[in-house]
Design goal:
flat; 83% helix; mainly alpha; 4 helices; single chain; 70 residues
């Protein structure tokens, strides 16, 4: 296995865990879920702020910003 494949697998594993953990932790381990949420709080705040910023664009400007072709 090459080094690039290993990095790609690690990235896929990280993406999978970021989807799965918030779904299963509250049911089985509420304390771990709280720690997970606190650990990722800054990222969540930045993501939400980005969504708010994008929502301020008019439709045409947003399409231009996202480089959507007509």
């Amino acid at each position: 296995m090459e080094g690039g494949d290993n990095k790609e697998n690690t990235l896929i594993d990280q993406k999978a865990s970021s989807v799965v953990l918030p779904l299963i932790l509250p049911c089985f381990y509420p304390e771990l879920f709280m720690l997970y949420m606190l650990y990722h709080e800054r990222e969540d705040d930045l993501y939400c702020q980005g969504i708010v910023d994008l929502s301020l664009f008019p439709d045409i400007k947003l399409l231009e910003f996202l480089d959507v072709q007509k």
